[in-house]
Amino acid sequence: ALWRHLAPSAQRVNQNVYKNLQPQASYKVAVLGAAGGIGQPLSLLIKMSPLISTLNLYDIANVKGVAADISHCNTPSKVQAFTGPSELANALKDVDVVVIPAGVPRKPGMTRDDLFNINAGIVKTLVEAVADNCPDAFIHIISNPVNSTVPIAAEVLKQKGVFDPKKLFGVTTLDVVRANTFVAEKKNLKLIDVDVPVVGGHAGITILPLLSKTQPSVSFTDEEVQALTVRIQNAGTEVVEAKAGAGSATLSMAYAAARFVESSLRALDGDSDVYECTFVQSDLTELPFFASRVKLGRKGIEAFVTSDLQGLTEYEEKALEALKPELKASIEKGIAFTQKPS
Ligand code: NAD
Ligand code: LMR
Q1: Whether pLDDT at 18 is above 60
Q2: Ligand 1 centroid to residue 79 C-alpha, Å
Q3: What is the mean pLDDT of the chain?
Q4: Buried-most residue among 124, 221, 277, 299 (CB within 10 A)?
């Protein structure tokens, strides 16, 4: 429902605002890192969802004001603020979906892996609390480097004996959002129609848009494939450089993360037609984690869309092989971090 607000017709917008005033379900969502650059607009966007009854906003600082502000929107969910580790358990009680954008962002010249030293520990601590307080929740990991933070989260959940691989998701929706935007621009297509699966991981060459699988079916020259692939892979860096030290993508990320939350809630609510690309534990390749399109249902991942990896072009096959060593190393780095005594 949220995305229909983008329709240009004022009448449709009014109908949907009205619709959002009517609760349609009663899921509880928590955002950990809610006062940050992503956390604030993400919390605002998901406050628009008629599927949410309670929105718990957690951060180590500044979250009270964010929650007070967002709580004045006349949409159904109740907004609550939680500050600091002593309030974390309460923020997570009975939650259905936990979204984690906590952690530091890149500055120009940095790779996502340069964030590992700070963000690995943040994700570990937060996921430990998730394991203790809402082990059945869908967990959405946004904090970078996603290629390592998702394996960290999986290990923490395993150590706590509550790992459900169907419910742990690395959020790669922004790669799909970017691919859709850039392909629609390049090929003069209606944005709403374009869907490009993006597989692999979420850093540099590990981000692999499968342009040959674009819906609707489009043909690209070799030069277009090369230029679009590189642009999609470097889109995060494009934003980091444009922000010139003030952080990385926050607004487009909030949009993408809100789409993934809305998809998760629709799946929980019984919608049988929910598909998203996401970085998850996977058997699709020899790597233990891999981003691909999955079908979401009430219990998390219901199926993997295996056909996306079949019949690839030579360019895509080569790119897939080329990304594996880097992705494997990032996954192993995450796992190794959780084996160290803390
Ligand atoms: P930010 O610095 O603006 O916000 C981060 C927030 O996390 C801050 O409010 C901070 O107080 C909070 N925080 C720090 N430690 C915490 C802890 N232990 N518990 C709870 N909250 C804590 O950063 P941002 O721009 O919002 O980016 C956040 C993360 O998201 C970064 O790691 C960034 O690289 C990543 N990111 C991922 C994607 C993606 O596609 N997955 C896209 C953009 C950014
Ligand atoms: C992105 O893709 O925008 C994020 O992963 C943030 C970054 O550091 O590029």
Answers
A1: no
A2: 20
A3: 94
A4: 277
